[in-house]
Design brief:
By secondary structure, the chain is of the alpha+beta class. It contains 31 helices and 45 strands. Strands 20, 21, 22, 23, 24, 25, 26, 27, 28, 29, 30, 31, 32 and 33 form a 14-stranded antiparallel beta sheet that branches. Strands 1, 2, 3, 4, 5, 6, 7, 8 and 12 form a 9-stranded antiparallel beta sheet that branches. Strands 13-11-10-9-16-15-14 form a 7-stranded antiparallel beta sheet. A hairpin with a 4-residue loop joins strand 36 and strand 37. Helix 20 packs across helix 23. The radius of gyration is 34 Å and the shape is globular. It binds zinc ion. Zinc ion binds next to helix 5.
Amino acid sequence: MSLQVPAVAKGRYSSLCSDDELLDDDDSSVWEEPGLISLQSSIYLPNTGRLASPPKEDGSQASAVIKMGWLDKNPPQGALYYQRRWVKLDIDYLRYFDNDKQVYSKGIISTASITNVTSVGELKFEVITNNRTFIFKAESEAERNEWVTLLQDCTRGRQRRSTMNPGSPLTPDFKGYLELKGLRSKLFTVVATDKVFLYKNMEDYRIGVGITSIEMNVGNVKVTDRRSFDLTTPYRIFSFIAESEQLKDQWVEAMRDSIGEALSNSEVADRIWAEPSNSSCADCGAPKPEWAAINLCVVVCKRCAGEHRGLGPSISKVRSLKMDRKVWTEELIQVFLLLGNVRVNSFWAANVPPSEALSPSSCSDDRRRFITNKYRHGKYRKYHPLYGNQKELNNALCINVQCSDVLETLSLIFCGADVNCSTGMVSCPSPLSLANAHSQPLQAELLRHNQNTELPCSEVDGGMEEVHFSAPTCVYHNGFLFKTGSMARAIIERKAREEFSRRWCILNDGTFSYYESDKNANPNGALKASEIVCLAVDVPEKHGYDHTFEIYSESERLYLFGTDDPNSHKEWVKSIAKSFIPAKAEPLLRLGFERIGRLKCKDGLNLQTSKVGWFALVGSTLHAYLENSQGEEIHLRKLNELSIQQDNEVLVLVERGRTLYIEGERKLDFAGWCAAIQTAAGSGGDTLSQQQLTDTDIPVIVHSCIDYITQCGLTSEGIYRKSGVNSRVAALCERFRQDARSLRLREGEHQVDDVSNTLKRFFRELGEGLFTSEDGGTWLTTAAIQDESMKISQYQVLLNKLPRVNRATLRALINHLYCVQRFAELNQMNLHNLAIVFGPTLFQNDGKDYTAGRAIEDLIQYYTLIFQVDEQQLKKQLEEITAIIQVREKLNTKFPSTEPGGHFICTVYLEEKKDTAEQHVKIPASMTSAELTCEILDRRNIPVKDKEYWNCWEVIDKEEMERPLHYQERVLPILHSFGTDSHLLVKKHIAMEAMIIYLASKVDPSKHGIMKFREERSILGLGLSSGSFHDRYFILNSSSLRMYKEVRSNRPERDWPVRNLRIYLGIKKKLRPPTCWGLTVVYESKKQEKPERQQWYLCCDTQPEMREWYATFLSIQNDGDVWPQDGLQPSRVSRVLPDTRHGNVSLIPLRGSENEMRNSVAAFSQDPLAGRCLASAGGLSTLQ
Ligand SMILES: [Zn+2]
């Protein structure tokens, strides 16, 4: 089966690894690799051990073949004739083979890496990837056009698919170089779930152009020697040699896992396909569909699944038959067997006009239209006779779920019956409980998957889809630009002039093409405007050319263009932006943006479905056009929070009043946006207006320091006069400079004098000063005016002349200083003392004379007049401060001084996370989990019965992981560590009794045994986790948790101190734990300078097993004290509340702005339950 080498080959080697592709970048060095010389033929698959004839149609092939046939492929460089190739296209890959009998391809190109497909002359077409162009020649015009259309279609729908298909781009379980016997150069080999891929080298892997893939469901791995092993398939034996014995073991293990994966993967699919109608797609009829919409009960092919995904999970819950094993319960499989695509379509597709029906070769646009009509709008469904009559529908549903007619239930649900309606029965309040009570597990399963389903809604809302796909205004522009090779990674280094080549560029008809010169007819490359997702304008002179810009494509490529002519640069940026920004977001084009493009996002109003938004970044403002909304502006320096979450996949912007989640749909442009937004949100410079600001236009640093001093420093003697520790002040200033918003000043952690000096240093070093360099002098001369009222009005004039931010800041600062001197009795800082300190600081002079001091003295003394302060408000503010001081005094006498004295108001849920189960609770620093639990139960009047183990739980990561707090654990530190998707929940700890009994049966707490282990590993620094679960032997004793490779191993692979581990129940689903009894273990070392955090996962085979491990951890970490001896005793538990007279003063502001804090305090005082609690608690007297 080896390829006969054309007898030319002077300096050309017909390597099968990559028969000479026309290299885009003229990089021919790979062909001179000596290792390849000997491989005159069939190097890619040494011919050892051909075991069987290939099957007619390989059913194991991951996706349905969209098209296959003979094509001539471009000749190796220099050779004259084309090579005849058997070519197959599926949604993920374009493969070409020596002939139609081959199982293993000669070349495999990931469709995700194809940037463009175009027809060229003489029945030819080009498949363009990042740095290679493949030319194919068809036998007829029609044939050629069909290939081009299908290929374009496959590469276009890519960006939506990539979110659902973890295989594209590959998420490797294991990868590296392996020697294939008979081949001297090593191959880059990648094990990814149920396949093994071979690439010529790592670069090829990165760009998605490989040799072949091996389906592991037919594989077997056998060790043959110290470093070598065979991967045997019915068609070939691959004899590999690893670099070391140890690596061989790892390869063998990875490949065996992959086989296991492949076998278990096909189990569900094989069962589902046992129902004949499930073996073709419910929407388009393509064979062997591997996906399903589990709530709609249809089995669909991958391309249709992509469109289902686009509807959002509230309409279609798409799962893979092969990859989402966990979701496929026996009941769900039975539902699919019972219904089957034909019966289900008798409902969903009862009225499909033949003109609208899909076929396996339908294009993406048709698919999208059909699937949206079918499921979102319910356009083709068979209407239930009760349609429109809600009450009757609900009734019918309640009756029907008691029998076995699942199809009728489906029909009722999707014609409007309310899955969560009330049955009117106390014993079975919902249809789900009715189904369970009548032993109808299949009905129950269907109901369960549709509890939050959005019903078909016939009104057509074109919305963003339309905008997204509508062609923007047609733009024409041409000229010379300088271009580097396109890249798959962000540009980190400066690109020198030599790296650019001159190209003639044309933007026309929605396509941006570049040519060798203006004489050439065939472009070197082209990019459709609709594929451009982002355009970034570099700062001048960033690269070898004065002016450069970057274009990001949907297929994760980055193109860098440059010119020395600023006007040409401007024109190009304008034209390109215009070519891909839709009319709706057109105002963005008028901005002097540094970055413009589209991103997927969600906001507070609708967290279910993400929408497309168009964004432009201008300075520190992010301009956005979101679906169905007018343009809006997000002031990045005013954000309450900016963070990147979920493994670098979501950028979270918390504004006043709303939160925007920007999703990393593609890595490359998303990373660029993240970096740009973070930079824009940080302090831009050393003047006031360049700082991160609060929504009242005060720099965050000023606000934080003033706030902290007000809370903790007003009674500190010599405040602002005493100096802090220089190194700590410098460190604080630096932290504020980097990201003021992320720094929270905390008592115990930060010292009062360090903070006060940080504030002083900030003003002293402020560019242009608080009073501006222009008018600073006039403020000083005003201080010399004798007449009081003249002086005051002059100050007012100057005040009004200040820029907005300066004015607001000055006002906030003088207000603060006014308050400080009002408590001079306690802090010894009277008006004069403060003025001595702040005069030279704010006027940035040496303070040799007292002029500056006098000005500050005036501003404080006449504060209410100059700033026209509302006396009532000031009085209230002073009262609040008095209250704070009083409460602090009390707390300080009750607690050791190291104890932070502040409170947090936090939301705690009872039993489940929903609005009605919300309680707002003040969390004093001393409050324990048991106290909080009692507080909540007490408010809701829930008595604690014997053998009921109410517990407070920390729930994190979208409720995928939770941890019962130990009853003596302090709650406040937990709150400090919370991310945005975490909360506290009070509910019963059902396993507690079993755990206590288990522990009681043991002499000493220790345990050993096998668990499945997986580690969080990082790939390419992207923080993606990889790896899979492997059996490991664990020994847990009073000091450490040790992990061994197997029982017999005598040296542990790992050893962790038990006390530093935090153990959560549950494992993130996306890690695909092999059982549902998983634990997530977090290791945090608390070293001040270099805090370290690791995370890994343990899976047990059974629930009792997991409980035993958990109980042992708990017991060891708490010296055997896992539950209070005499149970929860609400009466004995102290509730620490401040003096009731000041009950509503939050001592540490909540995160966010002052106003938000006030609002939540107000909400708190309006909560009648809270009020009752305050009254009954009787202040501090209950404290033990
Ligand atoms: Zn389909």
